[in-house]
Write a structure and sequence with these properties.
Layout lengths: L2 H12 L2 H8 L4 H23 L6 H5 L2 H24 L13 H23 L5 H8 L2 H14 L9 H26 L4 E11 L2 E8 L11 E6 L8 E4 L10 E6 L3 H9 L5 E8 L11 E6 L4 H8 L9 E7 L8 H10 L3 E7 L8 H7 L8 E5 L2 H13 L7 E2 L11 H24 L4
Parallel strand pairs: 7-8, 7-10, 8-9, 10-11
Antiparallel strand pairs: 1-2, 1-6, 2-5, 3-4, 3-6
Helix pairs in contact: 1-3, 2-3, 3-5, 3-8, 3-9, 5-6, 6-8, 8-9, 13-14
């Protein structure tokens, strides 16, 4: 996430303090603080609805789309905490007169609060099936609208037409308009680039799709991803996939998709040549740097897909030495191994190294540094694969001199938790440790 975007969000939440502070001298400051928390939650939710639109320019302010997904999650979590505290801390003030709808607004606020709490929690509890989460996530905007109604008509120590009221109302309107755009206008409006499925084939455990443009097509850079939806076969819902082919003049696209869930399972069983497809994008900034600094590419499993596009784009391009580590667990059919070996033969600067864990081989930071001749500080490292592997390699390489800014990766996950499972495991292990320690103390022989 870009510091600029985070700073703007923090500023948006803090600006109301300027108007709330003078009111504190005349009203109950505790109740006023509760009202501020409610306003801050609405501001965060309004921003969150907006960043979900994937509007042009968002990546410039907030960073690549994968980071925006992470931002989207944490904005929801922080808004949830603010809403919870707003409900716990009494916000009622004596001497306030509300309009005819203030009583209804009070009840609607409770409905909005608990509805948003349930749906936001459902978003970070990752064992809930994707299709159920996706359906429930669509109605968050309805409860946000109820929260905005609560703000507009509840009794409060300022008017909706005061600067403070207008300020918070603007974020409420931003969120409502964004939700209407995403749920009503966008599905009916022409979107994306129209394509036709030209080729479907199985490559190891992956389904490869080659798409031909039905019109101008889409320009992209190696390493970027796009949202794909296919007409028919229940595949109309768009999902993000990395483009595994390098850009071509005729704008033919290639996706290499692993069966990782309901949608991808249905896709590999039902997609056929001739089907129409819509591709939206491209997105992402996972791209090769210019210059002759050494590069390390690490693709684990289906994480090899962006490096297929990287490797194809090397022809005729001057680069420094590149080491591609392809980490697999297969014994026989390794997807794209033959294609990558051919590319490594054609491009002098590219070296392919297959790391097969089924043969007892593991990629470590020590090996990478050794293969680079000990000079890791000047290298760029690109990683696409499992999160635990990424964290282990990154921490090891940073300790050996790699700059954090030269370790490139994408948070390519639509849903992630907030660490509750890790916290539960830590608490369980800690509890077992304390029990064992107490038992050992009790059984120690007296001196």
């Amino acid at each position: 996430m870009r510091p600029l975007g985070l700073a703007l969000i923090a500023l948006a939440v803090l600006i109301p303090v300027y108007w709330f502070a003078p009111i504190a001298s005349e009203r109950d400051p505790v109740a006023l603080f509760s009202q501020y928390l409610g306003a801050a939650a609405l501001i965060l939710m309004g921003i969150n609805q907006f960043v979900a639109t994937r509007a042009p320019g968002l990546e410039i302010v907030f960073g690549p789309l994968d980071r925006i997904y992470v931002l989207h999650k944490w904005l929801g979590v922080i808004a949830l905490i603010a809403m919870g505290l707003h409900d716990i801390i009494d916000a009622d003030m004596n001497g306030l007169r509300g309009g005819v709808l203030s009583g209804i607004a009070e009840d609607i606020g409770e409905i909005s609060l608990y509805g948003l709490m349930i749906l936001i929690l459902a978003s970070v509890i990752t064992f809930i099936p994707y299709h159920l989460w996706k359906w429930s996530h669509r109605i968050i905007g309805v409860f946000f609208f109820l929260g905005a109604f609560h703000f507009f008509f509840i009794a409060k120590p300022f008017s909706n037409f005061d600067p403070l009221g207008l300020y918070v109302s603007a974020f409420c309107i931003l969120g409502i308009v964004s939700y209407i755009w995403m749920s009503v206008v966008r599905p009916m409006a022409p979107r994306g680039h129209r394509y036709e499925v030209d080729l479907v084939r199985r490559v190891g455990g992956l389904t490869e799709l080659v798409l031909l443009p039905k019109g101008g097509g889409m320009r992209h850079k190696p390493g970027q991803f796009a949202f794909l939806s296919i007409d028919g076969g229940g595949l109309g819902e768009e999902h993000p996939f990395t483009l595994s082919g390098a850009p071509t003049d005729d704008r033919v696209l290639r996706f290499s998709i692993k069966d990782l869930g309901d949608y991808t399972d249905r896709l590999q069983r039902t997609v056929q040549p001739g089907m129409d497809a819509i591709v939206s994008g491209p997105f992402g900034h996972f791209s090769m740097p210019r210059g002759r600094d050494p590069q390390v590419w690490i693709g684990a499993g289906v994480g090899i897909t962006p490096f297929l596009a990287f490797a194809e784009s090397l022809k005729g391009r001057e680069t420094g030495p590149i080491k591609l580590y392809y980490c697999v667990r297969e014994r026989d059919d390794i997807p794209y191994a033959v294609e990558l070996e051919r590319l490594a033969e054609e491009v002098d600067t590219l070296e392919l190294i297959i790391v097969n864990s089924s043969e007892g081989i593991r990629l470590t930071s020590d090996r990478i540094v050794s293969d680079l001749g000990g000079d890791v500080a000047n290298a760029h490292v690109f990683f696409c694969g499992p999160v635990p592997m990424r964290k282990a390699l990154k921490s090891g390489l940073l300790l050996k001199g790699l700059k954090a800014s030269r370790f490139h990766f994408e948070e390519f996950e639509m849903r992630t938790g907030i660490g509750l499972q890790s916290l539960a495991v830590w608490l369980w292990d800690r509890g077992k440790y304390e029990v064992v320690k107490r038992v050992s103390r009790q059984t120690e022989p007296a001196e």
